[in-house]
Amino acid sequence: MAFAPMGPEASFFEVLEQHRASLLAGLRRGAGQPCGAGAGTHLASRFEDSVGLQMISHCTTRKIKSDSPKSVKNFALILKILSMIYKLVQSNTYATKRDLYYTDSQLFGNQTVVDNIINDISCMLKVPRRCLHILSTSKGLIAGNLRYIEEDGTKVNCSCATAVAVPSNIQGIQNLITDAKFLLIVEKDATFQRLLDDNFCNKMAPCIMVTGKGIPDLNTRLLVKKLWDTFHTPIFTLVDADPHGIEIMCIYKYGSMSMSFEAHNLTVPAIRWLGLLPSDIKRLNVPKDTLIPLTKRDQMKLDSILKRPYITCQPFWRKEMEIMADSKMKAEIQALSFLSSDYLSRVYLPNKLRFGGWI
Description:
The protein is α/β, with parallel strands linked by helices. The protein has 14 helices and 16 strands. Strand 7 and strand 8 form a beta hairpin.
């Protein structure tokens, strides 16, 4: 059953439809040749523009020996978690990383130890974490033109006034239904909630909004990937015009070094940067007193991103980051409220979407 149309007239989405057609054409051509290479502390990776950062299959990460005093405890903890994973798989049940930690919190010491070991096991076995029957606790939210059925049979409708929590078992959801013309990834929960309060999803229907509340958790990334693979709906990001916002956008689009062994299941290179662009700050005459000077840490982050292999394939991104570097200033999305409290939802985003203001 289709959703009842509530948003703009069909002509509003003409540029979006053209963008979607070009994305589909790229998929049919089989986009993607290696565009560069990079290396991490424990993982060697390469960049491919159709996938993102991928671990090199023949690389060696590190060795842990059972007879070494330095690593004997870590070796024992790996065996402990492997035995727990075996029981989960055998019984066809699932547990969260938090569940595993609390089976013996004194033994593990802290949650990070469990998280790192699970990542190591996934990498070692070359299987996604969900194949180990381990789920992450979701922190993301979703709203808009989407319905689905969870693994336990629960029917979920995301078009309600309040947002819905991203499911903890993305692989288990089925019967996804949407007519959405676009999916908007919002960096911050505060901005996401403001757009909900402004009734953005209904005014711009049919559409979907997602937030990972900052750096996205695994389930939020898996959901964005699943929606892209299922519907090939254009996906845009709305992030702060600062290095941290750009980093978050890169994680959705190209992945991260730590999860490069699972890039095929997580990255969506078709994602585009909708806003807030550094060039928008000057174009909209955002007052200087609403801008924030880049810190030394910001500058280091920006320099690091500019050196990454995928920036070679994104000249427009590079130009925007160079504008930021030259101005030595950053801006939060909330800076647009100087024009009017609802400028973001009423003017900025609709104009960007209608006239193709993404890169």
